[in-house]
Amino acid sequence: MNIRHECYDARDDYHAQLKLQVAAQYDKDADLDTEDEEEECPDDADVADVLDAVLLEESGIGVWSQKKLDQMKEVEAVMQSAGWTVDSVSSQTRSTEDSFAPDRMMGPNKWKSVVSAARKEVLDSRLVNAKGHILAHDDDVGSKDPAYDGVKVVNDARVLPGAYFLSEFELADADVQAQLTEAVTKYSLNEEQRRAFSIVARHSISVSPAPLLMYIGGMGGTGKTRVIDSLRYWFTIRSEANRMAVTAPTGAAASVVRGSTYHSYLGVATGDRRAYAPRGRALDEARLRMRGVDYIFMDEISMVSCQDLYLIDKRLKDVTTLEDMPFGGLSIIVAGDFAQLPPARGLSLYSGEVSKVQRPRQSQTDQENTLGLLLWNLFVTVVVLRQNMRQTNTSDAAEDSLRTCLEHMRYKDCTEADLEFLRSRIPSNNPALNLGDPMWCDVSVITAWNTHKDQINAMNAIRFARENNRPLHMFYSVDRQGRGKGRVRQKPARD
């Protein structure tokens, strides 16, 4: 049955509003509230065709297009006022020490296979030291795999003094204490870093301890990566390098800590690629990589959503087959700064939109978000690093001022001295600063608008072509406004 619906209220007539906006493209001074929109845009005119016609007319630049052009001109003027020029640096003066040339030329598919083989070799190398560690699933899953040949269960029974079970018990093993001191000294850990390191290190030498769920926080430069390196060294000198795996949400973050993404290491699929299956090749490979792993260090936790944390917990439970323990009974140490990047998709671990209790009418996504938030609340061991160590080894007064200014910015507590320092770094106020200098010409420019970014990239493309005596090819694309598929977003449940 077809029910005819007519809208008699102009404020609810979206099609009429859209036609008025198109009409305004022809005449910027046109009143959008006029009722005589028929002359500007006939009923039978296709909105997309009208927009295309507007874009093709030189005098038909709309309000939004003009605003973008103004922003591009603005950033170009700012760059030029800072000393940026097209011919600022010649190709002869540019250093070529960092240039890279491959030893051999191969096609994209060949390079992809080479990278995949190298990646598999690195992951498999972590199995070398995994001796004597048997997971709960080994009897029924991995016993037929060649990697399990010759592996036997280690007898971990030992005699412990009665004082071990007292809260004031202190380590009396001189060799272990020497190893602790060596790791702390090698990486020059400060008091806060030493506290985080000691918690994990002493937990690793305890007998049958409860899983450690720990969060290491702090702004950039406080030494979170330093703690990771010291822990990696600690396990190495104890011939237990296989006990800790280092992961991160993105490839760039994983490369900084010399680890892997948790997607590839654990075989977790998230977002549109999610196709979760309890069994399969990805799970078997994850079990092999996780042999002997007791600690998983995850950096950049701010980029992990509630749903991602739930999926990680679910995957680790499949790996260890311990469904009744968070993260399959493994110890998880996470680090990051929640004032930095949020998750690319999903709700962050501190989001107030996630319900703390499950409700009968929740969607699957909302249920997983709730479970992820509850898992995050289990991280009760917290160490916050506050001392910025990034510029402490320099004697430059400007570096010290920058470090102090960044610390004050984080807490919205900038002083007049901080503002004066920032003003002194503006090229128009400081003749010593010039973007035309070789040391500054290729630095990254941080900007808040895509229009600024596009204009800066276009300017640098022209300069790069001139410096290298290469032609600059321009490719034009014609965009057409399409009709996207709408998706109704369910309102999250609240407490």
UniProtKB/TrEMBL annotation:
Domain DNA helicase Pif1-like DEAD-box helicase: from-to ranges: 189-399
Family: Belongs to the helicase family.
Name the record gives this protein: ATP-dependent DNA helicase
Gene3D superfamilies from the UniProt entry: P-loop containing nucleotide triphosphate hydrolases
UniProt entry keywords in alphabetical sequence: ATP-binding, DNA damage, DNA recombination, DNA repair, Helicase, Hydrolase, Nucleotide-binding
InterPro entries linked: DNA_helicase_pif1-like_DEAD, P-loop_NTPase, PIF1_helicase
EC number from the UniProt entry: 5.6.2.3
Keyword Zinc applies: no
Highest taxon of the lineage: Eukaryota
